[in-house]
Amino acid sequence: MAMSRKHYRAIARALRQAREYYPDDTNGIDYVMRELAGICAEDNHHFRRQTFYDAATSETPA
Q1: CA distances from 46 to 4, 11, 16, 18, 22 (A)
Q2: Phi, psi at residue 16, to the nearest 5°?
Q3: How far apart are CA 57 and CA 22, in angstroms?
Q4: What is the DSSP letter of 45?
Q5: Fewer CB under 10 Å: which end of the chain, C or N?
């Protein structure tokens, strides 16, 4: 079963919250974000990495 936009948004939300809770560990969180984006891109060729990165790092959720 392929992941849906709902799944991608939930993952981005979790990453965004991790960045809020652990502001001193953004390097580690960014690494996980890039790895997860790669997995999502393999799962769905329509996956937009930049949109995912923006949603995972913005203060205002997408």
Answers
A1: 11, 17, 22, 26, 30
A2: -60, -45
A3: 13
A4: T
A5: N
DSSP designation for 60? S
How far apart CA 8 and CA 36 sit, in angstroms, is 9
**Placement of tokens 């990495």 in the chain:** 49
- Helix 26-43 and helix 49-57, axial crossing angle in degrees, nearest 10: 150
Q: What is the pLDDT along the chain (62 residues), one digit of tens a residue?
A: 788 899 999 999 999 999 999 999 989 999 999 999 999 999 999 999 999 999 999 866 55
Predicted TM-score (pTM) of the model is 0.85
